[in-house]
């Protein structure tokens, strides 16, 4: 640990050398109005501080200090002169530099072996808005933004108890990104808290810019296509998870908050489920599960029936399918994969375009290309229906959209090789993989296979709130 000098000019040269070629660093040298013997120097980063606060809380109180004060020392400045809620003293040059980068102001005084670090942060942040992915018709609309302090405040407003704990950490050898581990003392497992701290402390990476970095670095199964840690941008969702005994990991600079442990059934739960009638919420949840089966299995089952198991289909339907395929030059599997690829390209292009162009591109592109391809006998009309239904149902759960694409492709390849036997084999392999996963020691499929009624109250259906008890990693309270 290197310390600062008692000489002001040496400290100024030291800070300037550390921030060499950084024009955002601002140096403000000044003296008191009535005592020109004592010199001061302020260092801060332009754009990360509130300059009005610097003027009123630091410069004015020091420059217009009382005439009767002969000697200015650190205690006087810290406790009587500077007007700020957070003022600390430090000799460590690394800590001082880190504080300046974080948006604090460093005050150096001539003939003083210490520096005052004053909280004057004032950089702009995005306003609190509703998250795009987790939109809800009913319930709270506010969402996290990129400010760590704002996000912690939003959570505090939901859970007003001293048992809500926050632990700060810095991640990234270069980025020095501030992270915060949050949990409710008495509900979260101490072993789980220790394990998360151990995994985060073991991260060796230059920079962490989003919680997805952390998910890849600390997940139990980083090579699985399924994520064993969750994320949310809504304070109400995070509050409910903490009340179930989970642990949240905030990261400065991102609106997403990581939650662990994470169960597979949570992919099919939505915030709106808990703000609507439980009958309707249960129906919608079952619909999401049914849609996930359709989007991953419908193309593979269609391929199996048309190529290998034609006897299963009614004669009228079979004749209709083959009539639509008259003149199509490609095998069914090639036709299916090509159409799915085109649909994904249209969806990706529509998401990258500006809103007023993207919607038109997705709708008009699909209609024009689809009808033109059928008329040109490049694809069959039945295949357009299969691919369209599969692609649309895949959008009902945005968090699993990428996983659906991978599973859909794998099932198609299995079905192309072995028909329905291949699809069954693929499903068996999928379930074996799911049941082998764990999320920080908790089985990934927990509550899905339980025979206890208390574990099934918030899985396939959403039970009434008076039935949902305080069970860890189960339904909301």
> Tally the helices: what do you get?
15
Distance between the termini: 48 Å
Instruction: Write out the strand line-up for the largest beta sheet, numbering strands in chain order.
Output: 1-2-4-5-3
Number of DSSP strand runs = 12
Kindly report the average pLDDT value: 85
- What structural class should be given to the helix and strand makeup? alpha+beta
Main sheet: strands, sense, barrel: 5 strands, antiparallel
Q: Unreliable runs, pLDDT <50, ≥5 residues?
A: none
Q: Order of SSEs, N→C?
A: HEEHHEHEEHEEHHEHEEHHHHHHHEE
Rg is 30 Å
Our estimate of the beta-strand percent is 5-15%
Tell me, what's the shape?
elongated
What share of residues is helical? 40-55%
- Quaternary structure type: single chain
Task: Tell me what you see in this structure.
The relative contact order is 0.08. This protein has helices at 8-18, 51-63, 74-81, 93-102, 148-158, 190-201, 211-218, 235-243, 278-307, 315-324, 332-352, 355-375, 381-393, 401-418, 420-436, and strands at 25-31, 39-45, 87-90, 105-109, 115-118, 164-171, 177-184, 230-232, 247-251, 257-260, 438-439, 442-443. Helix 5 (148-158) crosses helix 8, helix 11 (332-352) packs antiparallel against helix 12 and helix 14 (401-418) packs across helix 15 (420-436). A hairpin with a 5-residue loop joins strand 9 (247-251) and strand 10 (257-260). It has 15 helices and 12 strands. The protein is elongated, with a radius of gyration of 30 Å. With 477 residues, the chain is of the alpha+beta class. The strands form 3 sheets. A 5-stranded antiparallel beta sheet has the order 1-2-4-5-3, sandwiched between helices. It has a 5-stranded antiparallel beta sheet with strand order 6-7-9-10-8, sandwiched between helices. It has a two-stranded antiparallel ribbon with strand order 11-12.
